Amino acid sequence: MKKIKLLVVALFASVALQAQINTPAPSPSSKLMQTVGLTDVTVDYSRPSMRGRTIFGDLVPYGKLWRTGANGYTLVGFSNDVKIGGKEVKAGTYSVFTKPGEKSWEVFFYTDTQGGGTPRDWDESKVVAKVDAPVITMPMEMAVETFTITIDDLTSNSANLGLLWENVYVAVPFEVPTDAAVEKNIERALGGPSAGDYYAAAVYYSSEGKDINKAKEWMNKAMAMTEKPAFWQLRQQSLIQAKAGDKKGAIETAKKSLAASKEAGNDDYVKMNTDSLKEWGAM
Fold first, then answer.
1. Coil, strand or helix: which one is 245?
2. What angle is formed at CA 215 by the lines to CA 210 and CA 219, rounded to 5 degrees?
């Protein structure tokens, strides 16, 4: 029995010792971040190396689905909607799978983002975009030892997702909505402040005890630009009017806020408006 106990202790000590030894991963993980126009693009993947092996057509067979890296799924994320292979792809993170060929690769953007290897049950409905990308063969003296993903050929509206390993380079083009976003920004800037801008400025001036007449002016502009002001917006307007000495306007606006808060079923605002109307002699 004593010998068995000693053996168990020795085994635990051996495991503990091993757990303290750090060694490099055969296929280290890598993260790439790049802004294309106004869209943030991220790539999260693991990077296997050649180590004297023939890669494409051997280690990575032609015509078979490849995880496009090692370990977990290779992930690509977009902060805005993009266009890949002529298809609209919503902002988000997608896994990337490929079917390498001698002359071209099939590249798939897939909605599942958890897992290793390739999906056990491939589901075409989860493919948000597919691209047939031609292979560019490089001289073997330029061979890339470690699998590499790049974001190349940047313009304000597009870029290429580059896949490099051995003597192969494959570029997957994608488009970003920079022009449309800039046009919206230009229209907004040239159109002047929005209702929300005026509202926020008015509430800030009122809460901080600044120029109340300026706050009232901005609030009036905000309400004039709002098709149907909410009960909480009307509440703020009534308070600013009261502070500015416009009791008649404050009472009129508070009654609108009271009616709207009753309709919305917000008891807190019903009470606040009722209390203010009593305070101002309207009830």
1. coil
2. 160
Q: Which two tokens stand for residue 118?
A: 């390739």
Residues 6+ apart with CB under 8 A from 21: none
Structure confidence at residue 223 as a pLDDT band (50, 70, 90): very high
CA atoms within 13 A on the CB side of 41: 25
Least confident stretch, 4-13, 30-39, 51-60: 4-13
Q: How confident is the model at residue 21 (pLDDT cuts 50, 70, 90)?
A: confident
Task: Give the residues across from 191 on adjacent strands.
Answer: none
Task: Give the separation between CA 152 and CA 45, rounded to whole angstroms.
Answer: 17
Q: Which helix (H) or strand (E) holds 183?
A: helix 178-191
232-272: pLDDT as tens digits: 999 999 999 999 999 999 999 999 999 999 999 999 999 99
Cα angle vertex 147, ends 142, 152, to 5°? 75
Q: How far apart are CA 85 and CA 125, in angstroms?
A: 16
**Mean pLDDT over residues 185-193, rounded?**
84
Q: For residue 210, which amino acid is it?
A: K
Q: Residue 13 corresponds to which tokens in the numbers above? A: 């000590």
Quickly tell me which residue has 């060694």 as its tokens: 23
Distances in Å between the Cα of 126 and the Cα atoms of 74, 95, 118 are: 15, 10, 13
Strands (E), the chain: 29-36, 39-46, 75-78, 82-84, 87-89, 92-99, 104-110, 127-137, 144-152, 158-166, 168-175
User: In the Cβ-directed half-sphere of 256, how many Cα atoms lie within 13 Å?
Assistant: 19
Are residues 181 and 38 in contact, defined by beta-carbon separation less than 8 angstroms?
yes
Residue 135 backbone class (left: φ over 0; alpha: ψ -120 to 50; beta: rest): beta
Q: Which residue has the higher pLDDT, 79 or 21?
A: 79
